[in-house]
Amino acid sequence: MTDKTPSPESDQQRCGFVSVIGAPNAGKSTLMNALVGSKVTIVSPKVQTTRTIVRGIMVHDNSQIIFVDTPGIFKAEKKLEKAMITAAWEGEAESDAVIVVVDASRKKYHDGTREILQTLRDANHKKPVILVLNKIDAIQPETLLALSKELNAEYAFDATFMISALKEKGLDDLLDDIANRLPQGPFHYPEDQMSDMPMRLLAAEITREKLFHRFHQELPYNLTVETENWEEFDNGSAKVDQIVYVTKDGHRKIILGKGGQAIKSVGIEARKELADMLERDIHLKIHVKVDPRWIDDPDRYRVWGLDHNA
Ligand SMILES: Nc1nc2c(ncn2[C@@H]2O[C@H](COP(=O)(O)OP(=O)(O)OP(=O)(O)O)[C@@H](O)[C@H]2O)c(=O)[nH]1
Ligand SMILES: [Mg+2]
After folding, report:
1. pLDDT in tens, 239-248
2. How far is the CA of 33 from the centre of ligand 2 (A)?
3. In principle, which of 80, 131, 192, 267 could form an S-S bond with 157, CB 3.0–4.6 Å?
4. CA atoms within 13 A on the CB side of 75
5. Which option is the CATH number for 8-181: 3.40.190.10, 3.30.565.10, 1.10.10.10, 3.40.50.300?
6. Which ligand 1 atom is at minimum distance from the Cα of 165?
7. Is the pTM above the cut of 0.85?
């Protein structure tokens, strides 16, 4: 027998859900994409990009890890925000282990982080909770150690990792650690599956990401994207119709841009990304519709699996 022969124990398959929680903009979605090795959830420089739980699946050694990306946690006021935070905690509740992501490049950690640690303390659960200090590419090492000490004094984390999700630094050690903490059991998904998001939702999310990148202030928070129609053709291509719902005509005008140029370039970017992802031709048509009630319409919440009464 050589040293390389796995012991019967390490031969056992493991499988489990690992929620990725944290304050808005901490880098949770960037981290999940980097760990899964593919873009499965959207990312933007703005807070509150992720609106519902998004699963990203990967196999590491003998473990299938199902990461659960969640909306950033903060003190919610609006209905949609409350539904997002409820979804985030549901993602946490369904997981076997928890990663708390903190943006270490901020001078002070976000109030959302404090709220999360308080809720985890109150829950007093037995599952592993791992602290991930992210964005170490953007800070001085001295401040990092002080932050790690401070957070570990606030919560008894099972492990702490210092990483850069963006530069993909420190991810291997984190993966090894998580994989070993998962319960033994068979894989839940086929080995090559990376996402369980329906194509219509994925397509809508890609367009929403482009809109989040392009438009600013309150506009991104007052829009939503839905895939209305998806038509498949024999030659493998698909025609996709989407609606961007906005609350005011002024926002509709901004999104359309002069002569429809703004929405056109959003459409080009979204179409390209979707076509690359699905490896097929996509014809994407985006309509912009004013509906001041969308933000309170249960149908809009249902497509993301959000609880309208949260
Ligand atoms: N410098 C640096 N920036 C990062 C890193 N990780 C993420 N970012 C940036 O941080 C911003 C937010 O990233 P997201 O992954 O969307 O953050 P999130 O926590 O998912 O945000 P919400 O979904 O809004 O809660 C983006 O501009 C990322 O490029 C990192 O390791 N270093
Ligand atoms: Mg996110």
Report:
1. 999 999 999 9
2. 10
3. 131
4. 5
5. 3.40.50.300
6. 31
7. yes
